[in-house]
Amino acid sequence: MEGECSTKGIYKPTRMLNNAATSGASMTDSSPQSRTDLELAALFSKAWGVFRRQPGALIRGFLAAIAGGVLTLGFAMAPLMVGYIRMLDRASRDETVDVSEVLDGMPTFVPAFLVALITTSAVVIGSIFVVLPGVVVAVVWCFALWFVALAEQAAWPSLRSSWSLVRHNLGSVLLLLLAIALANFIGSLLIVGILVTGPLTLLVATLAFRELSAS
Amino acid sequence: MKWVFVTPGEIWALLRQTQAFLTDRLDDPDAPRTLIVTFVAPLAAINCIAVFVRSLIVESLLAGFILGIGTFALQLGVWLSLAIILPAIARQFHTTIEDDHSFALATYASVPMWLATILFVIPDDYWLVSLWARLAIFGVSTFGLFILQRGFVVLDVRPDVRTPLLVSIAIAYAAGYALLSMLVGLTAHILLYILT
């Protein structure tokens, strides 16, 4: 079930997620799924353990993804984030990671860019109608990039998969997003704290994605 | 289905005899849809009307309309978020709160705040009065925590987890409220800037 990285730059997604991507069965159908209980304390604790093992590489990767996105006026932000998510996934399996692995997401440029474009557009349009529709869209598609990164799904299936995943675990996902927002808010109060909370919360999201999608 | 709006008598019963009221209501909780029509929408509208009237006096009809609708959306969003995450927070403490109970608890716990938001009618220009009004809203809203605590007793939540559960809910609620109000405020002011 675990994902693999046989050599640097070639990422093999997990079999379970990959099957979901190709068959569209487990993540996109409307059959009832059991609700997964995310234990936030355990997730944050595990993420902190992973982060402490190689903080330098994870912070450099985070900065590289953000800087790359800014320098390309946002065009490469999503593919670079896909690369960074894969990097975090490897790190969570105790593999040694390197900042150059952020570029692993570039082969998924089209789906990642489309996901970001569709999501951002929908959030902006939804927000015009008294915010709530925009927030709803942002929440239901919050894991779309993770489906692109870790299940190698195309743009539209990843959006549908994210919707399906969130729909079946709405309470847990909302609580997770709130905890992530709170952690990043506290991190940004300390200015440089965001360099820790940024990678840490993305790591938490990656671990949560693994846990939720495994159910 | 017959829907009856919330009455002052019911609100009085909730505030004066909280546990008896909750014992009655949580035994067979109303469905979320019924709660929206009978309790949530009418009471959340208090804030909406207060902001509309204040903006009408101080600014313009358009400002009143946009800020009023935005405030109503904010109240609905915060209520819905609380109702959805309450069971998830409870599960962090290995406690189960059913969805119907969660919606009912979120509704009844929000009542004091909704009532107190009438004070939003006071314009910000009178800053001292306005400050006192905000503090009064905050103070009255904390009664919602007492209602939640009584609700946990009725739902037989283990005594050792009630306090940590209450603290977690309070933090999550404050964070959610702050986040949503920031988003609503920002969007409303961008819309006002564009339209005026």
What is the H-and-E element order of chain B? HHHHHHHH
Strand content of chain B: under 5%
Distance between the termini of chain B: 44 Å
Helical proportion of chain B, percent range: over 70%
Structural class of chain B: mainly alpha
Write down the domain tally of chain B.
Answer: 1
Overall mean pLDDT of chain A: 84
Percentage beta strand of chain A? under 5%
The largest sheet of chain B is: none
Average pLDDT level of chain B: 90
Features of the shown structure:
heterodimer; A: 215 residues; mainly alpha; two-stranded antiparallel ribbon; globular; disordered N terminus; B: 196 residues; 8 helices; 82% helix
Notes on the protein architecture:
The complex is a heterodimer of chains A (215) and B (196). Chain A has 215 residues and is mainly alpha-helical. Chain A has ten helices and two strands. In chain A, β1 and β2 (10-12) form a beta hairpin. Chain B has one domain (42-195). Chain B has helices at 8-16, 18-27, 32-58, 61-92, 99-116, 127-141, 143-154, 159-195. Chain B has 196 residues and is mainly α. In chain B, 82% of the residues lie in helices and 0% in strands. The interface between A and B is medium-sized, with 21 and 27 residues.
Characterize this entry briefly:
The complex is a heterodimer of chains A (215) and B (196). Chain A has 215 residues and is mainly α. Chain A has helices at 15-23, 40-53, 55-71, 77-92, 109-128, 132-140, 144-151, 155-168, 170-189, 194-214, and strands spanning 4-7, 10-12.
Secondary structure layout:
The complex is a heterodimer of chains A (215) and B (196).
Chain A: E1 4-7, E2 10-12, H1 15-23, H2 40-53, H3 55-71, H4 77-92, H5 109-128, H6 132-140, H7 144-151, H8 155-168, H9 170-189, H10 194-214
Antiparallel strand pairs in A: 1-2
Helix pairs in contact in A: 2-10, 3-4, 3-10, 4-5, 4-7, 4-10, 5-6, 5-7, 5-8, 7-8, 9-10
Chain B: H1 8-16, H2 18-27, H3 32-58, H4 61-92, H5 99-116, H6 127-141, H7 143-154, H8 159-195
Helix pairs in contact in B: 1-2, 2-7, 3-4, 3-5, 4-5, 4-8, 5-6, 5-7, 7-8
